[in-house]
Amino acid sequence: MLNWNRLALVMLAVTVAGLESAAVAQAPQPPPAKPTAQVDLGGSASDRPWAKAVDPKQQKVAIDLFREGNSLLKESLFVQAAAKYREALSHWNHPGVHYNLALALLNLDQPVEVFSQLEEAMRYGPAPLDADKFEHAGRYKSLIEKQLARVDVVCTQPGAVVTFDGQVIFTGPGHHEALVRVGQHTLVATKPGFVTSHKSPMLPPGQKTVVNLDLFTAEEMTHYRRRWANAMPWSVMVAGIVIAGVGGILHWQAHEGFGAYDRGIGICSMAGQTGGCTPDPTLAGKKTQAESLQGAAFAMYGIGAGTVVAGAVLAYFNRLRPYQTTETDKLAKVQVSPLFGPSGAGIVTTVHF
């Protein structure tokens, strides 16, 4: 990780035309001698564009506040020094004040704002600082940028409110690109009538991450599905009906067997001398077979009925059930985009797993 205090020890305070010298921002080391450069309010606005349209009275107020900030910076009172520099900037937006504010913020572990202040300090080139300070600012600006993450948040839904770590950054459609601290951040897009889009990406150092916050209505994200294939419960019920049908065939065969037995008994009784009849083994076998078929038929009826009921229960549990997809599920699994450039053309294919 970047050692902000060490940077503050190395970066010397700025000397600017129009502002007095700043103190060196360091606490552990002995403070340097008090700067001796004098305030210079001379020069035309064309020579000093950062002073253009700034009233001399406002410049004087800014210089006094700047001087107070420098004294606090020498005493390592970084919070108070930063407050004075910010107040000075409200009177005069001078690159030198931005530079010394960056020094104070280095000690307060605020790398994102340090980067922003160094950008402002370098806006007009080395003239309002000096060559050495401008070189220092550029070097540390590049170093800090590599320790931060760059994120580009995109939302195309009109009227969607997009927040970054709880802070509103824009209302869609649009995008917001910024440098932020490395690590996990929370991005949310909301709009009445739409399902909230919520993402918490891990942003790596020195890289740019594009985060798309797509919004969909509840209807667009609602789908229906079954527990099993639609044919399965009906197949079970058909199987139950078939089993019951087999039972019906066996019952008919049993009925025929009992009829044959009864006819045999009738014939036997008519042929007997006393009106009685003792069935022979063949006739008795018909009765036994008919009884077995009847028992099997009743069993088939029970199995068939139970199977049909089971199929009906499965059909009930297999009815269509609504569920919501996630934003990632809603996006196409394969996205193909054209790519054009000065040296040729091609396509970019993105596959979602």
Spatial ordering of strands, largest sheet:
3-2-6-7
How much strand? 15-25%
Radius of gyration: 45 Å
Termini separation (Å)? 34 Å
Description:
Helix content is 46%, strand content 18%. By secondary structure, it is an alpha+beta fold. It has four domains: 4-146, Serine Threonine Protein Phosphatase 5, Tetratricopeptide repeat; 149-215, Immunoglobulin-like (Sandwich); 221-226 and 320-353, no CATH class; 228-312. The strands form five sheets. Strands 3-2-6-7 form a four-stranded antiparallel beta sheet, with no helix packed on it. The model is unreliable at 1-12, 14-18, 20-45 and 332-353 (pLDDT under 50).
Write the layout of secondary structure elements.
Elements: H1 4-10, H2 56-74, H3 78-89, H4 95-106, H5 111-121, H6 131-146, E1 149-155, E2 161-164, E3 167-171, E4 174-180, E5 183-184, E6 187-190, E7 197-199, E8 202-203, E9 208-212, H7 218-221, E10 222-225, H8 231-271, H9 281-317, E11 321-324, H10 327-330, E12 334-341, E13 344-351
Parallel strand pairs: 1-9
Antiparallel strand pairs: 1-4, 2-3, 2-6, 5-8, 6-7, 10-11, 12-13
Helix pairs in contact: 2-3, 3-4, 4-5, 5-6, 8-9
